[in-house]
């Protein structure tokens, strides 16, 4: 019993410090500075690669254009979170036609943070990613 009680003291101290210093939940450790969080775009293209991985899954789509095909990359959340949102390892596969709604990259490269995806026939794949609150500017 003493061994269990002695292990609780450090844990209680950690929790108390987190509360005292206003530590946010772990989910908010992500920075969204790469993305235009106030803008939303949509593309339609062909899945070229779907990386089911941690800490983030990725979706790669090629979009046809008059200037030739354009490749896009979309960051997604972790495998566990993707499962909770109704995605699976085989939700999409190379060759699938897909519509992707996303926050674009700030630097103009083709891609962004995936918000929602629909199959070629318009069916939603999983649940949309909830919009993230705007991030405050960094402290001086």
Could you explain the architecture of this structure?
This protein has 140 residues and is an alpha+beta fold. The chain contains two helices and five strands, in the order H-E-E-E-H-E-E. A hairpin with a 6-residue loop joins strand 4 (97-104) and strand 5. The model is unreliable at 11-29 (pLDDT under 50).
Brief synopsis:
This protein is of the alpha+beta class and 140 residues long. Helix content is 18%, strand content 29%. It contains 2 helices and 5 strands; from the N terminus they run αβββαββ.
Question: What is the CATH topology descriptor of one domain?
Answer: OB fold (Dihydrolipoamide Acetyltransferase, E2P)
Strand percentage: 25-35%
Biggest β-sheet: count, sense, barrel? 5 strands, mixed, barrel
CATH superfamily of one domain: Nucleic acid-binding proteins
Name the shape in a single word: globular
What is the alpha-carbon Rg in Å? 20 Å
Q: Specify the structural class.
A: alpha+beta
Number of helices: 2
C-alpha termini separation = 48 Å
**Top CATH class of one domain:** Mainly Beta
CATH architecture of one domain: Beta Barrel
Oligomer: single chain
Q: Element order, helices and strands?
A: HEEEHEE
How are the secondary structure elements laid out?
Elements: H1 2-20, E1 41-51, E2 58-63, E3 70-75, H2 79-84, E4 97-104, E5 111-119
Parallel strand pairs: 3-5
Antiparallel strand pairs: 1-2, 1-4, 2-3, 4-5
What brief labels describe this structure?
140 residues, OB fold (Dihydrolipoamide Acetyltransferase, E2P), globular, 29% strand, 2 helices, alpha+beta, 5-stranded mixed β-barrel, 5 strands
